[in-house]
Amino acid sequence: MNPIRKKRLTLIGLMVAGIGVATWLALNAFDENLMFFFSPSEVVEGKAPEAHPFRIGGLVQSDSVKRKPDGLTTAFSVTDNAEAVTVEYTGILPDLFREGQGIVAMGQLNQNGIFIASEVLAKHDENYMPPEVAESLKTAHDEAVANPQPQASVQ
Amino acid sequence: MIIRFFHQMGSPRYFYNVAGKLVPWFMVSFLITLVFGLYHGLFVAPPDYQQGESYRIMYIHVPSAWMSMFIYVVMAVSGLISLVWRIKMTEIVVISSATVGASFTFLALATGSLWGKPMWGTWWVWDARLTSELILLFLYLGIIALHSAIEDKRVAARAVSILALVGVVNIPIIHYSVEWWNTLHQPASVTKFDKPSMDMSMLIPLLTMAISFKLYYGAVVLMRARAEIVERERNSRWVQEMVEQEAK
């Protein structure tokens, strides 16, 4: 490679590397703001802002969804399998909302530590399968839970 | 052999002729894979266990999003070659790819938004994945605008190549955004080293669509590059001879 081309290549390499480092630093500095939501553990630890609204994300705990008598308000717990936060929301829930489903809610904590949501979004996971496959996976899982492997019981 | 082929492809005249022969092949194979992919994706593949029929928009959304990044990488690599070796043909590839790349980015954003409303409950959120993809669209538009703002084609190509290289940092950000930060957008189902989190019956039409979109890009970039060559070389003898022959 002739020296001029080598020089150009080095300059471009330095430019791209420089921009890469600058972007990396900027993204690191804004890390918290780039997080779309806080997990229930972070909320319980008090990492979430108290004065202004924020988003909480996690799974809807099973058997926690309760409809209020007014017919529009729903109360449920959002969990990350470590901590859980109670959420109350008045309005129409998205199609994918169900127990065990990942959701992201926007709102604020009240004095009792209940998260009053103004918006609830369903988070979809990366798994795609036909209903029959989901059904057989579930059956297999239930069976495995009901009849643990013999080796497990020996130990 | 291969080196000689690339050397010859660097000549606009040779490229023009070879591209002219390749375009119909790309077009035919694009149409075949498109019909196969769409038919299997929209009619044959089973509905999803959670999303029902609505997931089928991914047969357009996912390949478009892949293409938006793939085309940008092609542009950045061609930009690098243009800047270092000053090859005319790679300059032409950079600018010929910009519009089709912008279209795929727009398609990915639009179809994602249409899917997001029923599934997530919102058209748009400012999470890391969606925002970085929107930045990619602005990069494409910036490249197109910059190119048309500079009169001298070779100077314009150099400016555009630098912009393409500057923007390439966005590509890993888009790809890893779903892993680095909490996002509303789901993580990757297919482009990961693990086993794809998608049933085979759904995956095959998706990959067919991805191939189909690549072939479409191939056809479009070759056609646009040919047009660009004729425009740039309009004063050269071979173009004038060709025009005279066509006129006869």
TrEMBL record, chain A:
Keywords: Cell inner membrane, Cell membrane, Cytochrome c-type biogenesis, Heme, Iron, Membrane, Metal-binding, Signal-anchor, Transmembrane, Transmembrane helix. Heme binds at residues 124, 128. Residues 30-155 are extracellular. It comes from the Bacteria. One of its GO terms (cellular component) is plasma membrane. Residues 1-8 are cytoplasmic. It holds the Pfam family CcmE. One of its GO terms (molecular function) is metal ion binding. It is found in: Cell inner membrane; Cell membrane. GO terms for biological process: cytochrome complex assembly; protein-heme linkage. InterPro entries: CcmE, CcmE-like_sf, NA-bd_OB-fold. It is a single-pass type II membrane protein. Heme chaperone required for the biogenesis of c-type cytochromes. Transiently binds heme delivered by CcmC and transfers the heme to apo-cytochromes in a process facilitated by CcmF and CcmH. Belongs to the CcmE/CycJ family. NCBIfam families: PRK13254.1-1, PRK13254.1-3, PRK13254.1-5. This is Cytochrome c-type biogenesis protein CcmE. It comes from Candidatus Thiodiazotropha taylori.
